[in-house]
């Protein structure tokens, strides 16, 4: 069997993709979630109640387990709304594998198609009050499938979604239980859409204090 050999450029491209896909996106999601939590105190209190209840149920156990993660529904809904409101990645390219027509527009096989997450996830035709920050929209069936696609969808769903979810929720649990923070740049903007990722312009520097 003849083995396919990647060029050095292809190897660099794959490695860079792994770094962005596994580290940068997760770290940026955590950063934006902390930023939104500080800006939305009503949701902060709800999430703290959820995390405190989970801690009470853990006694005398100190380590989080799978069942604890599954109970963090309000926290994960908040994260999903952060990702919907400010997509970490602006969009993705796909290639048409066959000719097709969409709303009288013909797309030939081989054409590259760009899916804009920001446009899709803020489309009022599918998401009620799209400019309103409302984590409760993820509690039921309000979000139409394939309209909020922070982790992709279908057979191209991000294979690291569950790992990222666990990493984000475990991190947030310990931060919320042990620390409080104040933003050093309260009105800091994000580089989105002028950067590959929606990173705060100053990196979201904070003053951290222990509880």
Write structural notes for this entry.
With 211 residues, the chain is an alpha+beta fold. The chain has one domain (8-210): Cytochrome P450 (Cytochrome p450, Orthogonal Bundle). Helix content is 43%, strand content 12%. The protein contains six helices and six strands. It has helices spanning 8-39, 41-58, 66-70, 73-85, 117-121, 161-178, and strands at 91-95, 100-102, 105-107, 112-116, 179-183, 206-210. Strands 1-4 form a two-stranded antiparallel ribbon. The protein has a two-stranded antiparallel ribbon with strand order 2-3. A two-stranded antiparallel sheet has the order 5-6. Strand 2 and strand 3 form a beta hairpin. Helix 1 packs across helix 4, helix 1 packs parallel to helix 6 and helix 2 (41-58) packs antiparallel against helix 4 (73-85). The longest helix is centred in the N-terminal third of the chain and has 32 residues, at 8-39. The protein is globular, with a radius of gyration of 20 Å. The mean pLDDT is 88. It comes from Solanum verrucosum. Pfam families: p450. GO terms for molecular function: heme binding; iron ion binding; monooxygenase activity; oxidoreductase activity, acting on paired donors, with incorporation or reduction of molecular oxygen.
Q: Which fold name is given in CATH as the topology?
A: Cytochrome p450
The total domain count is 1
How are helices and strands ordered from N to C? HHHHEEEEHHEE
Low-confidence stretches: none
- Gross morphology is globular
Report the count of strand segments: 6
CATH superfamily: Cytochrome P450
- Annotated CATH architecture: Orthogonal Bundle
Oligomeric description of these chains: single chain
**Percent helix among the residues?**
40-55%
Report how far apart the termini are: 61 Å
Spatial order of the strands forming the largest sheet: 1-4
Strand fraction band? 5-15%
Biggest beta sheet attributes = 2 strands, antiparallel
Q: How many helices does DSSP assign?
A: 6
What is the residue-mean pLDDT, rounded to a whole number? 88
Level-1 CATH class name = Mainly Alpha
Radius of gyration: 20 Å
């Amino acid at each position: 069997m003849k083995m396919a050999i990647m060029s050095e450029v292809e190897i660099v491209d794959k490695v860079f993709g792994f770094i962005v896909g596994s580290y940068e996106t997760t770290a940026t999601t955590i950063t934006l979630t902390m930023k939104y939590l500080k800006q939305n105190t009503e949701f902060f209190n709800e999430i703290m109640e959820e995390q405190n209840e989970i801690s009470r149920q853990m006694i005398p156990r100190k380590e989080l387990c799978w069942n604890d993660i599954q109970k963090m529904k309000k926290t994960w809904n908040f994260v999903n709304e952060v990702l919907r409101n400010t997509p970490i990645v602006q969009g993705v390219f796909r290639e048409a594998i066959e000719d097709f027509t969409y709303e009288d527009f013909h797309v030939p096989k081989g054409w590259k198609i760009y899916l804009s997450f920001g446009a899709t996830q803020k489309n009022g035709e599918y998401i009620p009050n799209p400019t309103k920050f409302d984590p409760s929209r993820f509690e039921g069936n309000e979000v139409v499938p394939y309209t909020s696609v922070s982790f992709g969808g279908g057979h191209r769903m991000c294979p690291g979604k569950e790992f990222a979810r666990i990493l984000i929720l475990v991190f947030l649990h310990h931060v919320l239980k042990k620390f409080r923070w104040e933003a050093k740049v309260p009105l800091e903007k994000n580089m989105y859409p002028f950067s590959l990722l929606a990173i705060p312009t100053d990196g979201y520097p904070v003053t951290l204090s222990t509880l």
